[in-house]
Design goal:
Rossmann fold, six-stranded mixed sheet
């Protein structure tokens, strides 16, 4: 491996009520891909924000290229060759690719911006990365994967020596991930140092050289990737063994009543003649490839999108759901895959979010009954084991897994009997996943809830589902009992076109 280019030693950082980093060490070498792993809330992002000047460290030292450094903002870090490629892309859709890459440091010809020069320099960057993108194309017309490549080109344009990838593959297709890995390998050959933050274990084994692990704001240790197993990494991350055995038989009794029936549902191109049933105490998995129509189907059931035709029955009675409010009144809750956009109000507290779906029940006269509201919030913070300094904590300050628990609490406070989980563990780590799985099992077994789970992770579908509905291009192509099901059977149905 190459020489050490970056060392962080004894880094401390505290926020009110939380010690986010506790004497953390990190070492990065030239020409390597270093995975930085840990549960949500372990401190990975905080450590990178300290490195790049977004946060000021309370203690510790940062040594870069043999000299001690302190950056006051990301621009200073970029100028020194340390750049972050963020998970949430920060491009301006109405500008061209080249304009996005050089925004804030445009080439000029006299008083005017020199677009021709920017296009020329952007083309050189893409040639270096072996990427076929037109610098003059409008950014909004590119796929998410291509936009990600533009972010990488932008990072390199800063003459980067250390590039931090923060969950870079979260929104990419398999083909785009393969292309991303080709680029990362190319950068590694150019002796760049790469820090790769990801929750996806299969990626870590494919692309990284070493794995540094954090837990609860502290540094745990570093492993050489080819010498360790997935279980070794998980055990360091969570301090316990995580079991991922698939479910072998349905946990629902054959005579369980049907609580939700959807009959011949149509809603645009992505929902065509879909029918299914959900039984009491069941976890019904919805499997399929991207664009199969799974989310669109359940959004139509929930009233978030209009349906063209079809009937919905709740406990045998036909109901008319036109809006999400109708669904909530019927006892149906929807946990969106985009929890930050649709699931929680990030700038509000845990308490305010927990009672959001049934606030009328906590109003006394013209005032909110704060005592009653806090009591129910504390109940579910404890029941769901939400990690927080207190119920007055802003949701934006929680980890992804704990934000998900606040969304679950919101629907439990509302006493929903049917819960739709759309990609329930997207963007959260293996330890938080385990807690969400345990919670879902508890909801169906002990509280009699019924769950519909949309998931793109095959292992998750096989581990959690009692039955599986498979969709392809807007149609239901099959239904499988968990007993005897295989990934191959699911994939055959998921690719069964008209």
């Amino acid at each position: 491996m190459g020489e050490v280019i970056l060392t962080m030693k004894g880094i401390d950082k505290s926020f009110p009520g939380v010690r986010a980093l506790d004497k953390v060490d990190l070492e990065v070498r030239k020409g390597e891909v270093l995975a930085l792993m840990g549960e949500n809330g372990a401190g990975k992002s905080t450590l990178m924000k300290v490195l790049t000047g977004i946060y000021t460290r309370d203690a510790g030292t940062i040594t870069y290229e043999g000299r001690e450094v302190t950056y006051n903002n990301p621009r200073e870090a970029q100028a020194d060759g340390i750049v972050i490629v963020h998970q949430e892309l920060n491009m301006m859709g109405h500008l061209t690719v080249a304009q996005n890459i050089f925004i804030g440091r445009e080439f000029r010809k006299g008083p005017f911006i020199d677009d021709a020069k920017m296009n020329e320099e952007a083309a050189k960057l893409f040639a270096r990365l072996n990427i076929d993108i037109d610098p003059k194309e409008t950014m909004s017309k590119l796929t998410v994967g291509m936009q990600q490549m533009c972010e990488i080109a932008k990072a390199i344009s800063h003459e980067a020596k250390v590039i931090i990838f923060d969950e870079p593959s979260a929104a990419l297709t398999d083909a785009e991930i393969d292309r991303l890995f080709e680029i990362i390998r190319s950068l590694r050959k150019q002796q760049m140092a790469i820090v790769y933050i990801s929750h996806r274990m299969d990626e870590i084994k494919r692309i990284t050289d070493r794995v540094s692990v954090m837990r609860d704001g502290a540094y745990v240790g570093t492993l050489i990737t080819e010498e360790c197993t997935k279980d070794d990494i998980i055990n360091m991350m969570v301090g316990r063994v995580i079991y991922e055995d698939p479910k072998t038989e349905s946990q629902v009794s054959p005579g369980a009543p049907v609580v939700l029936k959807v009959d011949h549902l149509n809603a645009g191109r992505m929902v065509r003649d879909v029918s299914f049933e959900l039984k009491k105490g069941e976890i019904l998995g919805f499997a399929g490839l991207m664009g199969a129509g799974r989310t669109e189907t359940l959004r139509a059931v929930f009233g978030a999108d209009p349906k063209e035709s079809g009937d919905i029955y709740l406990n045998g009675n036909k109901i008319n759901i036109k809006t999400p409010q109708d669904a909530v009144k019927a006892g149906i809750g929807y946990l969106s895959e985009d929890r930050k956009r649709y699931g929680v109000v990030l700038q509000k507290t845990i308490t305010e979010n927990s009672t959001l779906a049934c606030l009328d029940e906590y109003v006394k006269g013209i005032f909110i009954d704060g005592k009653k509201e806090r009591k129910i919030t504390k109940k579910y913070v404890e029941a769901l084991k939400t990690k927080t300094p207190g119920i007055d904590q802003l949701v934006m300050n929680l980890s992804g897994g704990n934000q998900q628990k606040v969304v679950v609490a919101k629907w439990l406070v509302n006493n929903c009997d049917i819960l739709i989980f759309d990609e329930p563990t997207r963007g959260i780590d293996v330890g938080a996943k385990q807690e969400i799985y345990e919670l879902m099992n508890k909801l169906v077994k002990e509280e009699g809830k019924s769950i519909i789970m949309i998931s793109s992770e095959m292992t998750e579908i096989l581990r959690m589902s009692d039955r599986i509905v498979v969709m392809c291009e807007g149609r239901k192509t099959g239904e499988l009992d968990i007993a005897g099901v295989t990934q191959e059977k699911i994939m055959q149905l998921a690719t069964m076109r008209d």
